Amino acid sequence: MSEKRASSIKVASFNINGIKARLPRLIEWLEETQPDIACLQEIKTQDEGFPAADFAAIGYEAIWHGQKGFNGVAILARGERPVEVQRGLAGEPEDEHSRYLEADVMGLRVVCIYLPNGNPQPGPKFDYKLRWMERLKTRMAQIAAEEVPALVIGDYNVIPRDNDIWSTRAMADDALMQPESRAAYRRLLHAGWTDALGLLNPRGGVYTFWDYQAGAWQRDHGFRIDHALLSPELADRLVAAGVDKTYRGREKASDHAPVWVSIAEHA
């Protein structure tokens, strides 16, 4: 049974970049920021290695889709177990990557994604990224047709706009900001979904990722690739959105910072 919450629901996303290596940082973030729902990417562990007991000890129940050594996604909820709707995307039966997990929790349809990076491009990895985005678009259309309050949150590995990166020149050849990647992302928005962080920060300059190399964090050489897309039913309930930037500067931090949205419980 879920504990009584305030008048809004906080849904957060954190690419943890290895849940075993960074479990203390993750627990620290959960206890300090107390999201109602937390979506994790790059847990990098098989299902049996997922530290569910550690989350239960601080009041979170979880579902997860693991994979040995890389990828992997999870959805945590405070005081309530997420009810799984779907894991993985249809369209490529041979695709065994653990990148998609969908659940009903706290009256919301929550989709946690870890979209393929796509580098090096051009090449098969970039082709896979674009196919995956088209498969995601198909699933998002199905969710939209249900007219449920939904959000698709996680690491999209797409820099949507020029003002979402410290230097466009630095990443000009990267799969994250190729015209095809951006066009595929725009198609998601044109289908009726709202980029919460983008909407509330039209001037840009809000980053979610800083590379470990070349002093990127110290120089604030970052970019925005972690996004929360809201269905029309949920966009009207958006209260706030932000990035827990300071967590990127802590010891043994992930190279991502958590992102979050605050949703009014009722429209």
Automatic annotation (TrEMBL):
What keywords is this UniProt entry annotated with? Answer: Hydrolase, Magnesium, Manganese, Metal-binding
Q: Name one GO molecular function term.
A: double-stranded DNA 3'-5' DNA exonuclease activity
Q: Which InterPro entries match?
A: AP_endonuc_1, Endo/exonu/phosph_ase_sf, Endo/exonuclease/phosphatase, ExoIII-like
Write down how the cofactor binds this protein.
Answer: Probably binds two magnesium or manganese ions per subunit.
Q: Which domain of life is it from?
A: Bacteria
Gene Ontology biological-process entries:
DNA repair
Q: Which cofactor does it need?
A: Mg(2+); Mn(2+)
Stretches assigned to coiled coil: none
Site (Transition state stabilizer) location in chain: 157
Q: Endonuclease/exonuclease/phosphatase domain: which residues?
A: 12-256
- What family name appears in the similarity comment? Belongs to the DNA repair enzymes AP/ExoA family.
Q: What is this protein called?
A: Exodeoxyribonuclease III
Task: Name the source organism.
Answer: Novosphingobium nitrogenifigens DSM 19370
